[in-house]
Amino acid sequence: MIVRVSKECSELGIFIAHTEVVNLTNGSLHFEEEMQKLETSFDLESLSVDPVVRAYREFYWRLGIDPTKTRPSGEALRRRVARGSKLPRINDIVDAGNIVSVKTLVPIGLYDLSKLVGSPTLVLSKGGERFNPIGSKSETLESGIPILQDERGLVIHVYPHRDALESSVRNSTTSVLVIGAGVPRIERKLVINAVEMVCDLLKRIGGVKTHEIEVS
């Protein structure tokens, strides 16, 4: 699958690392040991000065999002465990992405390939697009928002922090598009490594990478 990043998104410093993983057998609690270990590994003090956290926060401000109210996903998950809370247990595929986000602070997107039509493209919204976020009501997007759309125009992601219900990973999911979200001042190697880490975890539940990780 080719995942494209439009010129206007590239000019914002956006880049993504991506691949697909197939032959998955989804379940639950397969990565329990890793999750329990992460839940005792971090403290809050280091987050505010972490250069990765600061880079994603700066990008949020550029988009008009207050990162102290809407945290970048990796930071939000790490804050959760640093405060003594448990990581959410959703299913093995989603849990793999969350594990890597906590470790690297890179936002990871996982999308059910069977729900996508054609090759997705990251573009700036024109305004008026419908978005059905996981856990929230459907909404109409304003213009100028980075969004990932498939070829029929379905918004599957608002970059880099909100995913759509339609393409979300379910217990029945057997193949996924894996995306690591890059922004200015984040090294490409970090994002590529994060996607590779997800793929390594997914191998343990039967996953097979269809091609080497690409950067768009």
Automatic annotation (TrEMBL):
It comes from the Archaea. SMART domains: B3_4. GO terms for molecular function: phenylalanine-tRNA ligase activity; RNA binding. Signal peptide: none annotated. Residues 54-207 form the B3/B4 tRNA-binding domain. Gene3D superfamilies: Phenylalanyl-trna Synthetase, Chain B, domain 3. InterPro entries: B3/B4_tRNA-bd, Phe-tRNA_synthase-like_B3/B4. It holds the Pfam family B3_4. This is B3/B4 tRNA-binding domain-containing protein. It comes from Candidatus Marsarchaeota G1 archaeon OSP_D. The lineage of its organism: Archaea, Candidatus Marsarchaeota, Candidatus Marsarchaeota group 1.
